[in-house]
Amino acid sequence: MKGKILGFILTILVSGLLFFCGTNVDFASEPQEVYQVYLNGDKLGLIKSKEKFLNMIDTEQEALRKQYGVDKVYPPDGLDIKKIYTYNDDILKEEDVYNSIKDKEPFMIEGYVAKIVYTEKKIINDDQVIEPGKPVEISMMSKDIMKEALYKTAAAFIGSKNLDDYNKNTQEKITDTGSIINSVYFEETITIRKGLVSTNNIIFKDSGELSKYLLYGTLDEQKTYITKVGENLDAIADANNLNIEELMIANPQYTKSNVLLAAGEKVNVGLISPLVSVVYKKTEVKDIEVQYKTTYVDDKNRYTDYKQVTTQGQNGVKRITQDIKYVNGEINSLVISKTETIKDPVNEVVTRGIKKSASSGSEFYHSPQGNSDWSWPTISPFVITSRFKWRWGKQHQGIDISGCGYRSPIYAVQDGTVYKVNYNSSLNEGLSIYIDHGNGYVTQYMHLAAILVKEGQTVKREQKIALMGSSGFSTGTHLHLGVFKGKPYQGGVALDPCASIFKC
Q1: I want to staple 277 with a disulfide (CB 3.0 to 4.6 A). Which of 187, 207, 223, 258 is the partner?
Q2: Chain centroid offset of residue 35 CA
Q3: Coil, strand, or helix at residue 475?
Q4: Structural domains present in the chain
Q5: From CA 196, how far away is CA 230, in angstroms rounded?
Q6: How confident is the model over 313-355, as pLDDT tens digits?
Q7: Distances in Å between the alpha carbon of 442 and those of 350, 394, 504?
Q8: Distances (CA, A) of 469 to 35, 138, 264, 452
Q9: In angstroms, how far is CA 395 from the centroid of its own chain?
Q10: Is the whole model's pTM more than 0.85, yes or no?
């Protein structure tokens, strides 16, 4: 019996020996003292030196205190370090664990966060899309930085003096003509709260830098232009495909566009793409010319090349009061609230021959160098709100005429044939008409409320062809009048209506 027991014990001892020989644990050595690093309850790894790890945090905190000029920097939230004893030799470098924490949880400092909430979809720099209700957050060291940045952004569009006069209630009252600002505000909801801000984000310390960000929608370095001898802002705008309004906004240090600049000056020619919408409303009283009309007296005894002015036309003057809403410097809406006549126009009377010569075979055609052969397409009063020019980075191929009122009549500027009608109001041009005048010129009428002619129809000069509206891509009631040499979209070249067929 004793022999059997001794054999069993020996078997156990041999089995145990084999078990211990098959493991990596050395029970002859002591477990090592290490530190387990946790972040929000998750294990990040084991480190050897707690002191070295904490020194890294202290060094970062000190650097951030100097960078932002603050007394306190808060380490990553949820960080915990516990001493343990283990036989596990999978020990990480302190640097590796520290860097993994920085990637997951930031250091924090006391500051302010501005939240910008949009009511409509906004596109920044043609690629950044901000959806309605999705806020943009901006971190800064003090609330005054945002306050000053918003002021500078608004002043870029309104002008510092105009904005100061509005804020201080020192605007000059309108006597005969002039303008006065009624309100200034931002289209978006902007709130500011105090709290901890992440040092992983951009924290603005200067209102000037924040203003540039609000104005351009990016922190990227803006494109600049170095001036040459004899240049002014007008020339620089043309050279960089910008309109002068854009260039003046981008360079508020200049107050006039036609002043010669010194060689070597750095001018900002980056495209403006505001992160906020500066809205201001003003009342403007101005005198406008009322164009005289030309009537013709036919003389059958004279040949068609005869043309004689018998009564000289004189433009009249009307004084209009208009309420204008601007969004980031562009007219958003315009309503004429009052009109009074200062001087009535005197119509021009022209005697023209209608007798055909044997050699001509056709009536004499008068070159379009003024108003005599072309009629204005709208009724009075009217205002040209946008001209043929580069506008916000692209060519505006026509002029915008406003102030006549919604569904006011639109007339053909000359005899011709309607060669194209667009009935789709959702396209950029909205409801539109194209008239071929048979002399190489084609006129374009866009953003209509109603169309009164059909394709192929012959129309006469001053015939009512449409009603003014705001269809398509339009910010308010107006007529876009385009003039082309040749048919548009078929090689036709866009011309300035105020230089080709009118004097405006």
Answers
A1: 187
A2: 54
A3: coil
A4: 25-105 (no CATH), 115-222 (no CATH), 281-364 (2.20.230.10), 368-504 (2.70.70.10)
A5: 52
A6: 899 999 999 999 999 888 889 899 999 999 999 998 988 877 7
A7: 25, 22, 19
A8: 74, 40, 48, 13
A9: 16
A10: no
